[in-house]
Amino acid sequence: MENIPPLSLGTKVEQESLIPEPRRLPVQFTGSASEYFRIWIVNVALSIVTLGIYSAWAKVRTKNYFYRHTMLERSCFEYHAVPMQILKGRIIVGAGLAAIFFAKIYSLKLYAVLLLLLVLLSPAIFALALAFNARNSSYRNVRFGFDGTVGAAYKTYLAGMAVYIVTLGLGFPYFQWRIVDYWASNHRYGNQHFHFNMTSGPFFGIYARALGIMLLPIAGFTALMVVFRPTAGQAPVLQAPVLLLLVIYPIMFLVVGYVKARQSNLVLGSISLSPAGAAPSETSTHRLAANQKVLEVIWLMVSNLVGIVLTIGLLIPWAKVRTARYRAEHLYVIANGELVAQGSAAPSGNGVLADAATDLGDIGFDLGI
Q1: Are 336 and 286 a contacting pair, CB within 8 Å?
Q2: Which of 18, 157, 253, 286 has minimal Cβ neighbours within 10 Å of its Cβ?
Q3: Mean pLDDT of 58-78
């Protein structure tokens, strides 16, 4: 009988050569300002005519437009929320906000109690709104999900707020890092889970440099005003407060643009997606990467603001489309293998009240990206 040699899987080097190289997949935004303007102007007009009732449909139309024009590997994202569901939530939340408004007029004690209640509920609102938005978003017919609990949201807020208070505000980067960690680490795509691989240290580094960017010009301006202060009888063309404003506004845009660009690159570049039950690894994990430029972000902010102000708001669609296109053009997915996942059951509850609260209550959950 002929001896058959055992099946060889090759050397370690040969096995590693069979692993496909990571692919750099760009995110694209294909929408246009003229297209979105037609959607936006109808949304505004009908929301005004219907005293805000149409705003639920306006939100879904807007989300659908931006999702369907955001492309990754020739596939777009989808938004699935139902307008009537959103409207019911907004009616309930609107009634609550109206109660707070009238309480301010008739009873300051009741107003303080209701306002405190709103603050105490904000972590729950944050968690439920994230779950609602994730559950109603999909890519390639696979829904996203959010597994963060309300209890974990309160722990995140309390720990971050405690550091913030004890340090008299200097611990804000830690507070923001806790929020971002909660947001990123609890999302999933089908049965695959996102991971946030970053400590709070880089957040402190960004804000420390931003503080230097802000204080150095102001200190220099103050020194110049002291050295070249006008003598008695002289009437300078511009007084110090006016000059200070001319210095502060450019510095403000510079600082905000720096923080947004650097923090977006930092946060997005620290997010990875692994198969269910697996830890992040170099061979089985997809990663995000972002390369926003500080000066480009500042120019985007300034030109958008100038355009909106000069046109009394008519260039809002143009500004939104420009922002979405810029963020997409500077975002990539480093894919190890195919972008596939199995769908998983969505958690119970709809979270629509929390989603409505973040809209009507104008509660900002700024993640800094």
Answers
A1: yes
A2: 18
A3: 95
